[in-house]
What we know:
Layout: E1 7-9, H1 12-36, E2 42-50, E3 55-68, E4 72-84, E5 91-105, E6 114-134, E7 141-164, E8 167-177, E9 181-190
Antiparallel strand pairs: 1-7, 2-3, 2-9, 3-4, 4-5, 5-6, 6-7, 7-8, 8-9
Amino acid sequence: xxxxxxxxxxxxxxxxxxxxxxxxxxLSLLAVFATSASAQLKPDVRLGIYTNGGNFxxxxxxxxxxxxxxxxxxxINPTVDYLFISxxxxxxxxxxxxxxxxxxxxxxxxxxITPYAGAGFLIAFSTVxxxxxxxxxxxxxxxxxxxxxxxxxxxxxxxxxxxxxxLAIYAQGKLLISSGTNFQIGSGVRF
Length: 191
């Protein structure tokens, strides 16, 4: 598999501009697909755990199923995840992941369970703040130093959906390939 990963440090203002551009592009793509599938929009919410560090995540998105005759069903699934990162005293860290995923649903004729597999793009915004001691006349103090980064990458994932009345509960595993690799185990509900 050939892929390019872009990683660079940016100040917060630049990250905000990139966040707005990414959101605008994602919403534009969503609008294009939503016009042909407006009755099929399915909001989803999910909780997960990232295996690298055991950090908890919460996310939300939309599932847009598109049925293609003689091929099956593709699900376009733009989502955003917020990562709750544990940190030492005097420091804080946050990460926000934006995903633009597409999944293929495999139909099992004798089962209500629908397995799926897919891939997509991701953009990750991370910020780390650390309280650093300063030394000077009249005693020491501290100052907060902050560093931010943005990275782009790819997702590979698979899972299964289980219908429960008008809802669909799903469980999935997702490999995130960016400036590093991470694996997320998650579950959620589509409305």
